[in-house]
Amino acid sequence: MATPNIKFIPPQMADPSKYTTRANRQGPLWLLLKDTCILISVLRYLPLLFWPMKSKNGDDEKKTGWASVRDVLVQGLLFIVETIFLVLFVPALVSLPGILFFAVSIAGGLLVQLIAWPTQGPRLVQSNMNPETLRESDNHQDERWVFINGICTCSSGLQENVDRLSLLFGRSVLGIHNQSYGMIGDVIECLLQRCLSYKTMDVRVACEIVKGCLMDPEAKKVVLIGHSQGGIIVSMVLDQLFPELPNESMSKLEIYTFGSAASHFHNPPILPRTDATDSSPVDCIKYIEHYANEYDMVPRWGVLYATRALLTNRYAGAVFVHMGATGHMFIQHYLDHIFPVPGRTDKAHNGPTVKTNRFAGNGHVVQNGDSTHNLVQTHNHHVEEAQDVEMASSYLDGIPVVDEQASAKRQDVTLGSLVKPKKNVTAPKSAKAAATTNGDAAPILNGNVHRIGSFVIVKGSPSTQTQKYGGRTVRQISRLWLYLGGKSPPAEK
Can you tell me the distance from the alpha carbon of 46 to that of 327, in angstroms, rounded to the nearest whole number? Predict the structure, then answer.
C-alpha cells in the first residue's frame, strides 16, 4: 500500500494579541456575501463529494438496505424541490404580493419539513456496542464522547457513525443529530450559522449536552468530534461555553473534526501561575485536531480556506491534509483511511450489540499539561507502547510535509494587522543594526524582521516548525489515534 501524501499545518500560537474571529471585524451581511462567493468558487469540487464510490466495507455509508435507499430517495427529492424553490424565488419575490409571497414561502418550508421528516429520527442517538467493545468501555467511565454529524446525514447514518466510533475507540458515543433538510437547505443553514451566528436547534441541543458533560464532576475528559457542518456546530458551542464556564471545566475538552466547514475555532489562552518557570500563555483546550481531504469541497470552504487565506483568523488546532484525496463521507472517505478498525475482520461489526445509556468513561485520566502545539513532545516517548493496537494504516505511518508557508503567514502577518505600535516605537536594536533599505519598498531590518507601514513584523525562523514536526509520522503527531482499540494516551506529567 502506497504511503499517502500528507501536509501538516501546525497550530497557531496561544497569543491573544495576534488573532480574533472574522465576526469581530466584519459585519454579518458582508460575511454572508463573501462566504457565498467562496462557496461558489469551490462548487467545481461538488462531483468529488462522493468519490470514490467503491467501498469494500459493508458498514460504510453506501451499504444497501431499506434505510439507505429511503435516505437517498428523500435526499434526491429534497434537492429537486429546493432547486425549484431557488429558481422561482426571485421571480416570486418580484411578481407576487407580499402576503401571498410570505404564504408561498411558508408552504414551501412546510413541504421540505414533510419530505425530510421520515429520515430525521430522535435528536440524540446512543452507540450500539458489541460485547467486546462494551467491556472496553467499562474501563473509561469518567470520559464522555460526543459526536455531531454533518450535512445530508439522516438518522440511520448518524447511528452508523456513532457505532463505528465506538468500535474504533472502545467507548460509548452519544450522537447529536444535526438534522438534514437536503443538501441545499443544509448549505443555507451553514451560511446562517457561519455568518449570522444563528443558533439552530442542533446548536442549542449541543450546547446543553456538552455543558452538562463538562459540569459533571464524574467526567474527567470530554471528547467532542464533529464532521462537516458538525465542525461549525462545535465551533459555535465553544463560542457559547467559553464565557459561561470556568477554564477548569473547558480544559476537559478535546476536539477532533473531519472535513470541517467551520470558518473559525476559538480557543482562548490562559496564563500560567505566577510561580511557573514559563510565563507564556497556553491554550485552554490542549488538544484540537482537524483532518481534511484536499479535494473535499467542504473543508476547502471551511478549515482549509480559513487556515490558508484568512491570515488573522483564529483557527485553533493542528490540521492534517490528505493531499490528492477526494470524498466527504465520514466513514468511507475519512475513518476508513485514517483510523481503520483495529484487527478488523468481516465479522468484527456483525456480532450481538448492546445499547448503553451512558456516555463512556476513562481508565487513564489525562491531567492538564502541554498546550496543543506541544502535543508532539507529549506523545513522542509513548508511541511505541501504543503500537500494540492491532492495525495497519498507511495514513498513520506517513510522514507529513510541514506547510511552512501557511504556518509562517498565520504566525507573522497577524501581528502587523492587529497590533499597531505608537509612532515612537522602533524595532529592537539588534534588528535596527542590520537594517537595509530596498528602494521605496518596506525596509527589511534583517532576514526575519520586516516593517510593513508602521508595523514591525518579527518572523520566526522558516525552519522552526520543520525542526519541531519534520520527520515525524502522523502517529507521532496525532493524539486521537492513541485512543484506538480502547487505549488511552499516557498520563501527562
Answer: 9
